[in-house]
């Protein structure tokens, strides 16, 4: 039930503002339906780490049915997708899955998620567009 | 709130018509094309929608401050305003009206305007005058200048230096530079004809800067020649050729036999031949050659056409007709044959060919009779005719006719004689003899006839008469010719004639000195041809004339032994010993043959007779002893030996005596004899050896050692003696070593001694010492197969084969090394290979009994009974005497009176891998 506590972005403008307004921290947006099973699990996880990463990341959730503007642009076809932005730049991360643009599966370990966010933040601070995931997920998610 | 954004946008309302992502310039991405369409930024629909909403808002009169397009439009250029409209009649009319208005406006106040324009122009001109107009007043004065004045105007000096610059330019253009050689040569190469000469390796000679390339010249000559030859091949179609047709044809016939001539060559040949036959149509070979060429090309029809033309052109040439017959099928050939016969009635070949074309005998006969009518002198035709007759009587008639027509043909006479009965044959041969007085065949035939009739005595007579006659008339063959005749007679089964010929002719034209060697050669040659009767006759004749030459006796005896009966052999031997009683070889051989025929008494008597003629000869003594021993008459043998010792006290006799005593286990007696013998022959190593061995067998080691040592003192060069001594001392290795070292000192570079030293070390398990010794031994005796084999045995298994190959090379295929290879194969369980290598070893050295023993052992386990028997047979023939194990076995006194196969079996047991 973590989504209740996470800030929701109701329109495309809010999404844009959320991305634009943050200058120093990583913007983590979860696209998906609040009532989706995977999203619920993910939100729970996000909620639990939100406080721990608050110094370098901010976490939003966005119902991609309510805000369909980005579905095509960001290929939001999965039930649950997490995307990262930093200073109005889409951050990519090499998870080893073949899709560096987003995190579209459910993690079950808090530390893993923290590590990913931290790795992307570090890369972003160094001016890179692509971060390397601390763990390779190719064995778990085979396309 | 976890996130604390700077602006509290979350609580603000989103603006109307906001296009998501547009405000921040968001761009999308395409991860995979099958997931969704690739879109950049906000979607088109979204933008359109936004625009529509905005337009709606404008109509509501909200805001219009951003009408960019209207604002920045170019006011002057309004063509775009109605550019989209069509140009119709109304527009045309309007344009016309406008142009009329312009015209009208132009015509108004025209004069005044032009005047004004002119005035303005003048004003402008006066203000900005031209250069020529400025100097007009000055130049006007020039009109008064006269021609002289013009001519006398002085030249201006070169104030600006222009002339000097021009001169410099001229000079620089005239300047030349030497062109480099490379440019020249490359320029030459571009224009000249490339003639395939490689200038790199051309032998150019440079004299005074001029280059003469002789190679180039000669190559050019070759090229020209080749071109002319090529032209000769192609141009000669016109008719004139400058090639010698005969020479070319012969070369062609030799080359055209090969079928793999390529197509280009064929066409060239054909053209050339065409030109040949055109140039000289009477030349038959040209026609034949071209027909053959076509035939090779599988163009039978054109071949036939050519050969037909040939026949027409050269009807007198036999070859053309024959070729024509060959190329056509039988029916056509017959027609051609009849034509040919018309043109060439005297050609035997054509008649024969025509006869061959007929399939039925009757037709053949007809043809041949016709031929004989035309050519009654042809022997071939007559023969053919006779051959065609099945009935002997007809044949006889034919032959008698033939002989009357061709009395000089010996063949026909002989053929007739063969057909006739004996009496008539004699008559025929007599007639023949009168007709052909120089023919030896007739005489030989007559002799054969007599032999067939059973008049053996007459044979000799006929031959001798014939030879005297031939000598008188000429036509006498030489010796070799007669021998050949004799051999022919033998092959025909006329042995008496053969012998008679040899008898009468062998001594022909020979000097007394060469006789022996020539006759030996003759005999050997005949033997090689398998003509035993001839050889026998030759030897018989030779022995008759030279009964004292042992070589003839030996040869004759060998011949009889191989190809004659035992009676003839014995009679020959008897004759031999009678004629050469002083030759003990013949006696011994005689005795041996007697013994081989298991006629012991006969052998004894032979030897007794031998004693009469050669008293006190040790060989005969020993042979007699041998006979007695073989027949287990030991007492007799002893007596004989004691007689021999008294009569012919040679070393061999003594040794033989001792050996006999030892074999009979009479060691005391043997010792006595040895001691006696050593008084007479103190330098005999064999006697010393035997003495030692006798002591050894009696287990009297100190005495044996003493005997050996004293033996080695007297005969330091006797290797077996040293070896025996070393064997005796082998219980104490140090002594043994010292003995062998002494031996080596006395006999340097002796492989046997080295082998013994190595083996002693191996037996004493001093492998390192043995290896060191092998190394030294191989330096001293690098070609000793035995040492190499020993060294290989000490190598680890993997290195044996390369080492053996090395050894094989070094020792020049030593049999012991070959045997070692065989043993290696055997140990690797390859009995087939081992067998073949043992056989090779035996072939290399059949005198080494060890190889036989090894092969016997191998075949015992891996071979068949037949193979074993075969091996034993070969072994008996080879009768080996040497080796490592074998002499020990067959000289062992315990193995006395054992047969050779038994000994071989024992040896096979004794040998080890």
> Taking all residues together, what is the mean pLDDT of chain A?
90
- Beta-strand fraction estimate of chain A: 15-25%
CATH architecture label name of the domain at 813-913 in chain B: Alpha Horseshoe
CATH class of the domain at 813-913 in chain B: Mainly Alpha
Low-confidence stretches of chain B: 62-68, 199-208, 235-242, 254-260
Average residue pLDDT of chain B: 75
Termini of chain A, distance in Å? 30 Å
Low-confidence stretches of chain A at least 5 residues in length (pLDDT < 50)? none
Note the main sheet of chain B: 2 strands, antiparallel
The rounded Rg of chain A comes to 14 Å
- In angstroms, what is the radius of gyration of chain B? 62 Å
Strand order of the largest sheet of chain A: 1-3-2-4-5-6
Could you describe the largest sheet of chain A, including whether it forms a barrel? 6 strands, mixed
Ends apart, CA distance between termini of chain B:
100 Å
The ordered H/E elements of chain A are EHEHEHEEHE
Written description of the protein model:
Chain B: It comes from Myxozyma melibiosi. Chain B: Residues 327-454 form the Suppressor of forked domain. Chain B: It is found in: Nucleus. Chain B: Residues 1-45, 57-131, 187-207 are annotated as: Disordered. The complex is a heterodimer of chains A (143) and B (913). Chain A has 143 residues and is an alpha/beta fold. Chain A contains 4 helices and 6 strands; from the N terminus they run E-H-E-H-E-H-E-E-H-E. Chain A is 31% helix and 20% strand. Chain A starts with 7 loop residues before the first strand and ends in an 11-residue tail after the last strand. The mean pLDDT of chain A is 90. Chain B has 913 residues and is mostly helical. Among the domains of chain B are: 270-344, Alpha Horseshoe (Serine Threonine Protein Phosphatase 5, Tetratricopeptide repeat), CATH 1.25.40; 750-811, Serine Threonine Protein Phosphatase 5, Tetratricopeptide repeat (Alpha Horseshoe), CATH 1.25.40; 813-913, Serine Threonine Protein Phosphatase 5, Tetratricopeptide repeat. Chain B is extended. Residues 62-68, 199-208, 235-242 and 254-260 of chain B have low confidence and may be disordered. Chains A and B meet through helix 1, strand 3 and helix 3 of A and loops of B.
């Amino acid at each position: 039930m973590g989504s209740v506590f996470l800030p929701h972005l109701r329109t495309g403008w809010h999404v844009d503002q959320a991305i634009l307004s943050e200058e120093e921290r990583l913007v983590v947006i979860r696209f998906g339906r609040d009532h989706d099973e995977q999203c619920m699990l993910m939100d729970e996880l996000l909620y639990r780490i939100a406080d721990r990463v608050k110094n370098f990341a901010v976490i939003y959730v966005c119902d991609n049915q309510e805000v369909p503007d980005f579905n095509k642009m960001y290929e939001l076809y999965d039930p649950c997708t997490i995307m990262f932005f930093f200073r109005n730049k889409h951050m990519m991360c090499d998870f080893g899955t073949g899709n560096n643009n987003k995190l579209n599966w459910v993690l079950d370990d808090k530390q893993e998620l923290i590590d990913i966010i931290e790795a992307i933040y570090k890369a972003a601070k160094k001016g890179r567009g692509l971060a390397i995931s601390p763990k390779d997920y190719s064995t778990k998610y085979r396309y | 709130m976890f996130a604390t954004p700077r602006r509290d946008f979350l609580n603000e309302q989103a603006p109307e018509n906001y296009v998501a992502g547009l405000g921040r310039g968001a761009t999308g991405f395409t991860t995979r094309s099958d997931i969704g369409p690739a879109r950049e930024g906000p979607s088109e629909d979204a933008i359109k929608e936004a625009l529509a909403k905005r337009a709606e808002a404008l109509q509501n009169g909200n805001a219009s401050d951003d009408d960019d397009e209207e604002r920045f439009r170019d006011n002057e250029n309004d063509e775009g305003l109605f550019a989209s409209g069509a140009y119709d009649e109304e527009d045309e009319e309007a344009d016309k009206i406008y142009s009329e208005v312009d015209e009208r406006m132009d015509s108004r106040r025209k004069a005044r305007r032009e005047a004004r324009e002119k005035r303005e122009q003048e004003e402008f001109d006066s203000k900005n005058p031209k250069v020529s107009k400025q100097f007009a007043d000055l130049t006007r004065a020039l009109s008064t200048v006269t021609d002289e004045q013009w001519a006398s105007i002085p030249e201006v000096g070169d104030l600006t230096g222009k002339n000097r610059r021009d001169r410099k330019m001229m000079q620089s253009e005239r300047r030349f530079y030497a062109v480099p050689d490379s440019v020249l040569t490359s320029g030459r190469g571009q224009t000249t004809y490339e003639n395939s000469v490689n200038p790199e390796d051309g032998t150019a000679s440079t004299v005074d800067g001029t280059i003469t390339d002789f190679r180039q010249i000669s190559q050019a000559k070759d090229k020209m020649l080749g071109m002319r030859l090529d032209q000769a091949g192609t141009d000669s179609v016109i008719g004139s050729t400058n090639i010698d047709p005969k020479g070319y044809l012969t070369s062609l016939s030799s080359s055209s036999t090969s079928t793999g001539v390529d197509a280009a060559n064929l066409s060239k040949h054909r053209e050339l031949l065409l030109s040949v036959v055109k140039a000289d149509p009477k030349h038959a070979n040209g026609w034949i050659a071209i027909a053959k060429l076509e035939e090779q090309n599988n163009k039978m029809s054109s071949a036939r056409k050519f050969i037909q033309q040939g026949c027409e052109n050269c009807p007198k040439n036999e070859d053309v007709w024959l070729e024509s017959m060959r190329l056509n099928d039988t029916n056509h050939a017959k027609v051609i044959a009849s034509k040919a016969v018309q043109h060439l009635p005297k050609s035997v070949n054509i008649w024969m060919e025509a006869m061959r074309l007929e399939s039925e005998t009757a037709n053949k006969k007809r043809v041949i009779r016709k031929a004989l009518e035309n050519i009654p002198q042809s022997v071939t035709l007559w023969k053919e005719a006779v051959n065609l007759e099945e009935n002997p009587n007809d044949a006889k008639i034919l032959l008698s006719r033939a002989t009357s027509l061709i009395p000089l043909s010996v063949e026909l006479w002989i053929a007739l004689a063969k057909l006739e009965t004996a009496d008539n044959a004699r008559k025929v041969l007599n007639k023949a003899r009168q007709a052909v007085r120089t023919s030896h065949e007739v005489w030989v035939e007559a002799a054969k006839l007599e032999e067939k009739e059973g008049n053996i005595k007459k044979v000799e007579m006929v031959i001798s008469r014939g030879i005297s006659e031939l000598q008188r008339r000429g036509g006498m063959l030489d010796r070799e010719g007669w021998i050949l005749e004799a051999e022919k007679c033998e092959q025909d089964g006329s042995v008496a004639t053969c012998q008679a010929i040899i008898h009468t002719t062998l001594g022909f034209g020979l000097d007394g000195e060469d006789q022996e060697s020539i006759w030996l050669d003759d005999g050997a040659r005949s033997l090689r041809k398998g003509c035993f009767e001839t050889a026998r006759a030759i030897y018989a004749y030779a022995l008759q004339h030279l009964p004292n030459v042992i070589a003839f006796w030996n040869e004759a005896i060998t011949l009889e032994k191989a190809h004659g009966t035992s009676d003839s052999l014995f009679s020959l031997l008897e004759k031999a010993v009678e004629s050469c009683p002083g030759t003990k070889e013949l006696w011994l051989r005689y005795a041996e043959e007697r013994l081989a025929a298991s006629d012991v008494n006969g052998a004894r008597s032979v030897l007794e007779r031998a004693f009469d003629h050669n008293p006190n000869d040790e060989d005969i003594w020993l042979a007699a002893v041998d006979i007695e021993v073989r027949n287990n008459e030991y007492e007799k043998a002893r007596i004989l030996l004691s007689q021999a010792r008294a009569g012919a006290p040679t070393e061999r006799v003594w040794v033989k005596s001792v050996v006999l005593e030892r074999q009979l286990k009479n060691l005391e007696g043997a010792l006595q004899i040895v001691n006696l013998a050593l008084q007479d022959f103190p330098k005999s190593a064999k006697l010393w050896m035997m003495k030692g061995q006798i002591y050894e067998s009696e287990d009297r080691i100190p005495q044996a050692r003493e005997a050996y040592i004293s033996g080695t003192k007297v005969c330091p060069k006797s290797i077996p003696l040293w070896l025996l001594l070393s064997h005796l001392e082998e219980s104490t290795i140090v002594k043994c070593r010292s003995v062998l070292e002494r031996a080596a000192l006395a006999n340097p570079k002796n492989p046997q001694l080295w082998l013994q030293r190595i083996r002693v070390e191996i037996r004493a398990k001093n492998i390192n010492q043995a290896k060191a010794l092998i190394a030294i031994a191989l330096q001293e005796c690098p070609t000793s197969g035995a040492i190499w084999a020993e060294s290989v045995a000490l190598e680890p298994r993997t290195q044996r084969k390369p080492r053996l190959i090395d050894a094989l090379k070094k020792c020049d295929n030593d049999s012991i090394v070959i045997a070692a290879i065989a043993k290696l194969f055997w140990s690797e369980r390859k009995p087939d290979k081992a067998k073949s290598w043992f056989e090779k070893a035996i072939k290399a050295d059949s005198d080494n009994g060890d190889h036989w023993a090894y092969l016997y052992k191998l075949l015992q386990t891996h071979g068949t009974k037949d193979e074993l028997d075969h091996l034993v047979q070969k072994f008996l023939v080879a009768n080996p005497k040497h080796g490592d194990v074998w002499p020990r076995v067959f000289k062992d006194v315990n193995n006395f009176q054992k047969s050779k196969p038994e000994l071989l079996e024992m040896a096979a047991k004794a040998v080890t891998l």
